[in-house]
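Key result, reporting period 2: structure in, sequence out.
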């Protein structure tokens, strides 16, 4: 099989590529240049797609003796991921750019180009389990390493995309991956995992957004509309935030207040007690299904954060959207996040959260 191995410069994608070579596939490595002005070096575990990362990926490819290319997707990434990220914050929502990147870049633009060039599949270092069935269908499941499972960020892929994907790390835990990298002599064996948002390497989301969104001051109010303070822009806040509110009026109970909702049209941030963050019903829009679309109501599990636990729920597909009724209340759910729904360990699909109550 001709396989295009996406190589980020990290240990996971390096070992994924090595496993494919060992299995006898015809592997070509590709590193995605996603930044218009890539930094020379990463800062520890922050950021990715730096020049250092591309060099690390090339060194692994050389060790594996496979062809290696750098594909420039900076323009597509900026338009589909960065601009979308800014637009979501401007609209008072909290996006997940990793899901957007998987949806629009790694498993759309890259896959399309790979197929056009004659490759049979694209492989990545994601921790997720793809199972192929006799009828030709493919199902997506959680990985063996529950602590590293990344099925959530793949929940927006459809059957056509999944049928052209390979996830070689589906059956191993992270320590084994690092041990394999050491045994192969890869310099990335001890490289820290990247985290946070890849295009905000310093971790300062507010500082990044300031470059794109002008300040629009407004009121910080409680649920009754009482003005408690002022803010310099709703993009500085997310649902569930406690720090940085700078309120001059203490709560009657003396307990801290949290951001409950954001209303960008009126430039209002609503705050209240922690208990008011609890929600049981999520509505999702623009659902995508990993297999055939699900109809009606069913019992399953719902996950709304990449590193959060899935919760038991009744899920109903109706009116072109999803209604998720959680058995137990959830806290800090924000519009713009993605809810991924499961049947056991199998991913059924996902939707963008429009509201939570």
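The corresponding designed sequence is given below.
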């Amino acid at each position: 099989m001709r396989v295009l191995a996406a190589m980020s410069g990290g240990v996971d994608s390096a070992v994924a590529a090595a496993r494919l070579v060992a299995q006898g596939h015809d592997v070509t490595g590709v590193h995605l240049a996603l930044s218009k002005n890539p930094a020379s070096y990463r800062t520890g575990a922050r950021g990715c797609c730096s020049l250092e990362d591309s060099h690390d990926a090339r060194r692994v490819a050389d060790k594996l003796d496979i062809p290696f290319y750098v594909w420039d997707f900076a323009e597509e990434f900026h338009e589909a991921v960065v601009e979308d990220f800014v637009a979501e914050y401007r609209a008072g929502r909290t996006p997940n750019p990793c899901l957007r990147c998987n949806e629009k870049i790694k498993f759309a633009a890259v896959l399309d180009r790979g197929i056009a060039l004659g490759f049979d599949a694209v492989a990545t270092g994601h921790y997720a389990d793809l199972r192929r069935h006799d009828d030709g269908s493919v199902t997506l499941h959680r990985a063996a390493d529950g602590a590293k499972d990344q099925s959530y960020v793949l929940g927006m892929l459809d059957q056509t995309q999944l049928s052209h994907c390979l996830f070689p790390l589906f059956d191993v835990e992270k320590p084994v991956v690092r041990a394999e990298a050491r045994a192969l002599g890869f310099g990335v064996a001890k490289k820290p995992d990247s985290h946070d948002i890849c295009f905000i390497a310093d971790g300062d989301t507010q500082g990044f957004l300031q470059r794109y969104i002008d300040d629009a001051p407004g009121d910080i109010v409680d649920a009754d509309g009482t003005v408690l303070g002022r803010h310099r822009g709703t993009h500085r806040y997310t649902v569930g935030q406690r720090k940085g509110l700078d309120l001059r009026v203490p709560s009657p109970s003396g307990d801290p207040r949290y951001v409950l909702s954001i209303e960008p049209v009126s430039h209002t941030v609503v705050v209240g007690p922690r208990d008011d963050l609890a929600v049981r019903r999520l509505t999702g829009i623009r659902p995508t299904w990993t297999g055939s679309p699900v109809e009606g109501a069913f019992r399953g599990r719902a996950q709304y954060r990449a590193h959060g636990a899935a919760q038991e729920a009744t899920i109903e597909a109706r009116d072109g959207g999803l209604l998720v009724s959680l058995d137990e209340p959830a806290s800090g759910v924000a519009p713009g996040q993605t809810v991924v729904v499961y049947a056991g360990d199998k991913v059924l699909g996902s939707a963008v959260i429009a509201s939570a109550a």
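The domain at 2-125+168-190 is CATH 3.40.50.620 (Rossmann fold). The mean pLDDT is 92. This case is discussed further under Risks and Mitigation.
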